[in-house]
Amino acid sequence: xxxxxxxxxxxxxxxxxxxxxxxxxxxxxxxxxxxxxxxxxxxxxxxxxxxxxxxxxxxxxxxxxxxxxxxxxxxxxxxxxxxxxxxxxxxxxxxxxxxxxxxxxxxxxxxxxxxxxxxxxxxxxxxxxxxxxxxxxxxxxxxxxxxxxxxxxxxxxxxxxxxxxxxxxxxxxxxxxxxxxxxxxxxxxxxxxxxxxxxxxxxxxxxxxxxxxxxxxxxxxxxxxxxxxxxxxxxxxxxxxxxxx
Length: 245
Fold this sequence. Notes:
Blueprint: E1 24-29, E2 33-38, H1 55-64, E3 75-76, E4 85-91, H2 94-102, E5 108-116, E6 123-132, E7 138-141, E8 148-159, E9 163-170, H3 177-184, E10 207-215, E11 222-226, H4 231-237
């Protein structure tokens, strides 16, 4: 395990665009971690139906630098839904992965989402117990039914007559948590055909991991990364433009 008080200088380097992995723009790369922005529509890790078109696979190729015999790899710390864009951190050693996961409760995770309608409460805490059913769909259940506690803090930043831009502080990290909580509150995220409106014509899910702040596994320094809101969010919130519901 790394000692967070070690005096270590870790240099990050600028990655030329031609070397950036497809669907993942690297913002920070040092000997212990890689931080970057995931594009929507890309899995974080492999699934039974997809093994190669993932951020994890792309970063393994990146750290191997074209050497097919290399065993170098990155280690998963957390995940984003396939449809969600934004910030992810990967570890480059098992020790770094262990440190980040062990200190994950000290990590700040901020998202931005555009939801349908205007929320009556402009800030608050959505809390429930979530359970994934046999169809891989997540829903709120009674605690006695085996659900895991999920807590989502939010505040409304901007409103139009059709949509609201909300800042979300993820206090727990359950699967599909933000999507389920807003859908069950009557304000599904724009573009969410699974938990929201079935007949949707939006090009993507309006959910973005916009800020990530955590302790570096070697130096103990708190690092903070921010990602701009996607242009799609701006078009939704424009006075006149944007797809119609």
